[in-house]
């Protein structure tokens, strides 16, 4: 199997999706959710309603559609946007992980969840994402997402042994499918890591650097792998990734180093060799230049940190 840089980023970000609750609604109803404290996704499993997100126009949110919300913005779902909305916090109380009933029927079925991301590496995944991603029912990915949504709804309704485990795996795939759909629309993405790893023209070079980050890659061989001249490759890579190819490699090495420093007791000499540096000193200089901290100081601070599993939504 080919090296998959996107899987590398997902693994480094430690992305974990969890379905956290939902509601069934019918008749006249409206519910208001506060700005989330985590990256949020929500699913229309059945029926349709109006969805209003702060800073965005109201949209019709229909069965088979999903939303990824990376911004700290409140949102309202309603049968009619003119209706006064009930407060979700008051309705759910201390138990947000449940399905509640609104209105007089069960015409609309909503499932919500969140994405846990490593506090140190999670921004690798969300920094280039817009505040809202809407995967519509008529998109090219509609069939795949529809199947996942149907399975999620079934797991919540039937409650077979292992339903919680199954729902978590399905939620992970829903999140992945939303990201895949967004990556397929690279023309709308700003320059950055996600755009770079989804660009087919520079994919060979990205795969090579991810497969062997310790190697002393040269611009010429990376350009040759992409069937470009050095000049064209360097210019195009920077226009897509927002940084030069060898700077991309250095930053990727430092992200790997940060994880190793947080999660292992490997000596700096071993990390230096693993990441392609000739000495511990050369590695330390590079690490401090990129991260602003010496490796030992970074490791000590990471060990003292109480929480390292959340990236908060951005206020944009």
From TrEMBL:
Q: Which residues cross the membrane?
A: none
Name of this chain's protein: AraC family transcriptional regulator
Domain HTH araC/xylS-type positions? 203-301
Query: Is DNA-binding one of the keywords?
Result: yes
Query: Does Phosphoprotein show up as a keyword for this record?
Result: no
- GO MF annotation: an example: sequence-specific DNA binding
Keyword line: DNA-binding, Transcription, Transcription regulation
Xref: PROSITE patterns: HTH_ARAC_FAMILY_1, HTH_ARAC_FAMILY_2
Gene3D superfamilies attached to this UniProt entry: Homeodomain-like
Q: Which InterPro entries match?
A: AraC_lig (IPR032783), AraC_XylS_family_regulators (IPR050204), Homeodomain-like_sf (IPR009057), HTH_AraC (IPR018060), HTH_AraC-typ_CS (IPR018062), Tscrpt_reg_AraC-type_HTH (IPR020449)
